[in-house]
Amino acid sequence: MKLFDTTLTRLQESLDVRLVEHNVLAGNVANSDTPGYRPKELDFTQAMAAAQHAAGTDALAGTDARHMGPDGAISDGAQGSRATVAATQLVRDGAGTSPALDGNQVDLDRTMAGLAENSLQYGASARAAGKKLAILRYVVSDGGS
After folding, report:
1. Cα–Cα dist 22/29, whole Å
2. Beta partners for 93?
3. CA distance linking residue 27 with residue 77, whole number of Å
């Protein structure tokens, strides 16, 4: 059995991408009364693929907007883990629904359902990470308590 596999890394990336998706959906809810607002969306599968690709690179992670990149250029201000940055870059304008009289295209029911689903998926990933850490804790303690 391999002690340190990619499971925890993938779970961390999943949690990071789910956080970005939550922020996108929460932003849509917050703007549900904004005239002319078009909802944003994030494709989770595409964002996870981008997060895995970003994790495979040896790029420097910017933790402060004032950091310079490896080429000496000023950072674009993106902060967070590589998965978070990769997912944030994939946020796009959503299809929305037929606009209301004020031009707003947010379908509040669909957005709230998306928030609920995302919350369940986030919780499942968090529990899986907790179980994996519990297994590692058990192994490190030689099976004792």
Report:
1. 11
2. 40
3. 20
The string of pLDDT tens digits covering residues 91-139 is: 998 877 778 888 899 999 999 999 999 999 999 999 999 999 998 899 8
Q: What are phi and psi of 72, to 5 degrees?
A: 90, -5
Amino acid identity at 101: L
In sign, the C-alpha dihedral spanning 103, 94, 78, 70 is negative
Q: How far apart are CA 44 and CA 121, in angstroms?
A: 11
Q: How far apart are CA 38 and CA 104, in angstroms?
A: 6
Model pLDDT for residues 25-78, shown as the tens digit of each residue: 999 999 999 999 999 999 999 999 999 888 776 555 566 666 655 545 555 555
- Report phi then psi at 59, rounded to 5: -70, 155
Q: Are 105 and 99 in contact (CB under 8 A)?
A: yes
Q: Are strands 40-41 and 92-93 parallel, antiparallel or unpaired?
A: antiparallel
Residue 8 makes CB contacts below 8 A (sequence gap 6+) with 129, 132, 133
Q: Give the other-Cβ count within 10 Å of 43's Cβ.
A: 14
